[in-house]
Design a protein that fits this description.
Layout lengths: L7 H32 L3 H12 L4 E3 H8 L3 H13 L3 E5 L7 E5 L1 H28 L3 H11 L1
Antiparallel strand pairs: 1-3, 2-3
Helix pairs in contact: 1-5, 2-5, 3-4
Length: 149
């Protein structure tokens, strides 16, 4: 009986996962650089604007925004503070729960998001193509992801 992690399936899974991690790092670096250079936005700031733009009434409770962006409460508070200072969002108290705080997208925030979206989309496509060219084994992984999307 083989021990966990030594089967050929486990080895294959580890290799696949490492490829995905490398792909993720490559794409995230390219996206972050392009958004910062062209739009003065960090990747987390851009993603916050995306989720706010998609949300009903363009607002999310802070804890919901934190969960969507993948940040802890302290980090999302700093993120939202930067967005507020840039006039891309503002804070609003929850009418039902005075302790609850919403982050609301401003018209300037919507405009900045719409301007940055084309850069994000183009850079994502280019970064995936580069990664696939560097590692043809990613072709099947990317094809499966595109079919599921």
């Amino acid at each position: 009986m083989s021990s966990p992690g030594t089967t050929s399936e486990a080895v294959t899974d580890v290799r696949m996962w490492n490829r995905m991690l490398t792909l993720h790092a490559h794409v995230e670096t390219r996206l972050a650089t392009a958004l910062q250079r062209r739009h003065g936005l960090g990747l987390s700031e851009y993603r916050a604007l995306v989720f706010l733009d998609e949300a009903p009434d363009n607002e999310l409770r802070m804890q919901d925004l934190a969960a969507k962006v993948g940040l802890n409460q302290s980090s999302v508070t700093r993120l939202v503070s930067r967005l507020n200072v840039a006039d891309l969002t503002y804070r609003d108290l929850c009418p039902d729960d005075k302790r609850g705080v919403y982050t609301v997208l401003t018209p300037a925030g919507r405009t900045r998001y719409q301007q940055a979206r084309a850069t994000y989309d183009t850079t994502l496509t280019e970064a995936l193509a580069e990664a696939e060219a560097d590692d043809p084994a990613l072709t099947a992984i990317l094809a499966a992801g595109r079919l599921a999307g």
